[in-house]
Amino acid sequence: MKNIFLNSNNLTIGYGNEIVIKNLSLSLSNEKNYEIIGKNGSGKTTLSNFISYNFEGNLFDSVITRDKLDISEISPKPTLLENLTLDENVAYFTHYLSIDEETINSKLNKFKLTDYRNDSIKNFSSGMIKRSELAICDIKNPDVLCIDEPLNYLDKEGIEILEDLLNIRSSDNRCSILSSQESLNILTNMETVNLNEV
Amino acid sequence: MKFNKYLIKKELFTEFRNNSSLYLITPTMTVLIIVFPILAENRFAIDEDLFIIIQILFLILFSTLFSIRNPIDNQKLSRELNFARITRSEYFINKITSEFFIYFPQILLFSVLYSAFTNTSVKTSVLYFILTIIFFSVNTVMVNIIFQMFTSFNNKFVQFILIVPIYMAFSFFIAPIWLGINQELINIYLMLYLGITILIFSFTNIYLERNEK
Questions:
Q1: Number of C-beta neighbours around residue A66 at 10 A
Q2: List of chain A residues whose C-beta atoms are within 8 Å of the C-beta of residue B83
Q3: Cα A110 off chain centre by
Q4: Are A35 and A178 in contact (CB under 8 A)?
Q5: DSSP E strands: which ranges in chain A?
Q6: Which residues, in sequence order, are CB contacts of A175 under 8 Å at separation 6+?
Q7: Rounded to whole angstroms, how far apart are CA atoms A18 and A58?
Q8: Domains and CATH numbers, chain A
Q9: Tens digits of per-residue pLDDT, A100-130?
Q10: How far apart are the CA of A75 and the nearest CA of chain B, in angstroms?
Q11: How far is CA B178 from CA A3, A17, A24, B174, in A?
Q12: Among positive and negative, which fits the CA dihedral B66, B71, B76, B77?
């Protein structure tokens, strides 16, 4: 049986008095994968932020039921701390888990980041930051992973690593939510939340 | 109350690697301290009453500059805390701790330097002097974090205008103790200071924990 972690029949969210998403019917399971599709300004980022507890706006009269899960979000704006090194960022963002050094080494190696572990994030390119965030999410292995504009800044090799990560998560029955302007066809078993139709 | 060494370490590393705070404010204030007595009375000694007033003004000025040095971006902070699975109440406690570690040695050193360069001493014991600095530090750090976490005043000028009167109120507890009043009054003032500290801390902590449920 699929576990629904977020359910609403009339999700209406926005900022101030401005409504961004109106009366969206949403039911998300933590064992399925989803893609949020919509044109510019349709509310993809807002919905992605809402799902991952990063939304700071108004919920109006929405009736929402949700379970508290471990949800991580990767957005186009970097979350990593630029004054810290990659190793320090990994330690900070995974401090609540007991992960052995060997696992961290192998994950960083998978994302081709081993040579940059002691480098400050402020010297990283946007692509490197994105890879680092993906590597941290791979180490954390959250119940739900939201990625807003997943292909942004990634080169061909980076996209292949991302696909690999999403496929492993899918085979482990862990939920991934991708948000972009059009369908990316990264995973075969994805359900679509189309914000153009709301 | 949960101390998170990773969060404290992160705050300390960020501070020491951020050129716009310690490296700018502290030397500026030190130069002001050294230059002030010469400007005020054309010698390295000033009148004791003037010393107390000006030292408190320096405390307020330094605290205000310290407070507005690195404004917290609430949206970025929220994202960071969610990614690291840190609650806002946990952040509040650990941020106070890390800010205290950064702020207290500076303000203590700054006060001692001020006394040395003006050839003037406070009329109270070292213990009370340090206690007042500790209370002042904890309270200014807490008020600054509360201001940044709960208000949308991202304009440094507005922050400056609002935060200075609060720091003035905190410093008014210090002045009588440094001026050398009797023991009973010192105890009363210190108890008042302790009460204010506990009140601000517990009220904010209860508010944050209630919102997290």
A1: 15
A2: 72-73, 79, 93, 136
A3: 19
A4: yes
A5: 4-15, 18-29, 33-37, 64-66, 71-74, 144-148, 175-180, 190-194
A6: A5, A28, A29, A30, A31, A32, A33, A34, A143, A144, A145, A169
A7: 9
A8: 4-197 (3.40.50.300)
A9: 999 999 999 999 999 999 999 999 999 999 9
A10: 9
A11: 64, 52, 63, 6
A12: positive
Q: Which of A81, A119, A130 is the best residue to mutate to test the B interface, defined by the most B CB atoms within 10 Å of its own CB?
A: A81
Contact B100, B141 (CB under 8 A): yes
**CB atoms near residue A16 (< 10 Å):** 7
- Are A88 and B10 in contact (CB < 8 Å)? yes
Whether B26 contacts chain A with CB within 8 A: no
Q: A35 with A28: CB under 8 angstroms?
A: no
| Burial of residue A192 (number of CB atoms within 10 Å: 0-12, 13-18, 19+) | exposed
Q: Which residues pair with A144 in a beta bridge?
A: A71, A175
Query: How far is C-alpha B97 from the chain's CA centre?
Result: 12
pLDDT in tens, B96-141: 999 999 999 988 988 888 888 888 778 888 899 999 999 999 999 9
Q: Token pair of A116, please?
A: 């940059």
Assembly ipTM: 0.90
Domain boundaries, chain B: 5-212
Strand A144-148, strand A175-180: pairing: parallel
Q: Which two tokens stand for residue A19?
A: 């409504």
Q: What does the alpha-carbon distance between residue B161 and residue B145 come to, in Å, rounded to a whole number?
A: 16
Report the alpha-carbon distance of residue A47 to residue A179 in Å, rounded. Answer: 9
Q: Which residue has the tokens 């970025």?
A: B76
A112: nearest Cα among A62, A63, A162: A162
